[in-house]
Amino acid sequence: MASQKTTARSIDPLTLEVVELIGTVVARYYEEYEEAAAEHALTGAQARLLSLLSLEPLPMRRLAQKLKCEPSNVTGIVDRLEARGLVERRPDPSDRRVKLAAATQEGRQLARSLRDSLDFAREPLAGLSREERLALRGLLLRMLGADAGA
After folding, report:
1. Is residue 150 domain-resident?
2. pLDDT band at 66; cut points 50, 70, 90
3. What is the extent of the structural domain holding 12?
4. Do the domain assignments include residue 149?
5. Where are the beta strands (DSSP E) in the chain?
6. What is d(CA 108, CA 87) in angstroms, rounded to the nearest whole number?
């Protein structure tokens, strides 16, 4: 019985290689993301928050959940982005007690510029056919437990 536990916990070489490759991809992405953010005089956390807000206004608590950090950290990040004119606070139309953070026009333009400067993911993916990108998306969604048809 003890040998079954040991066997179940060991990782086969192919799985280990895939895990290492995923780690390398993630590390490269974050490295380039931090560099791109710095070129726009942003920290990585500021860039991620601005990127989220360029899609839609969000309550501060939801931003904290998405960024996996404390709400007080989000408040500080929003304060700094607001001081630069990239973000504004506004009341939530459905509940005026809740404050939404929203990207300003300048913030959305900066977020777009930041996305456009991220070549790491775009260039290697451009070398894949549409079918290969669809297959990769499906596999990643499956790994995350999401519906591959989404």
Report:
1. no
2. very high
3. 2-142
4. no
5. 58-59, 87-92, 95-103
6. 9
Tokens 């799985």 found at? 15
Residue 89 makes CB contacts below 8 A (sequence gap 6+) with: 78, 82, 99, 100, 101, 102
pTM score, whole prediction: 0.74
- Residue 147 domain-assigned (yes or no): no
Q: How many domains does the chain have?
A: 1
Phi-psi region of 91 (alpha: psi -120 to 50; beta: other; left: phi over 0): beta
Task: For residues 98 and 67, give the distance between their C-alpha atoms in angstroms, rounded to a whole number.
Answer: 19
Establish if 59 belongs to a structural domain. Answer: yes
Q: Which residue has the higher pLDDT, 124 or 91?
A: 91
What is the SS3 assignment for 104? coil
Q: What would the two tokens of residue 26 be?
A: 């993630």
Q: What is the CATH number of the domain that holds 101?
A: 1.10.10.10
For residue 76, name the pLDDT band (cuts at 50, 70, 90).
very high
Nearest to residue 90, comparing CAs of 82, 81, 78, 101? Answer: 101
Given a cut of 90, whether residue 55 has pLDDT beyond it is: yes
CA dihedral of 39, 42, 55, 91, whole degrees rounded to 10? -150
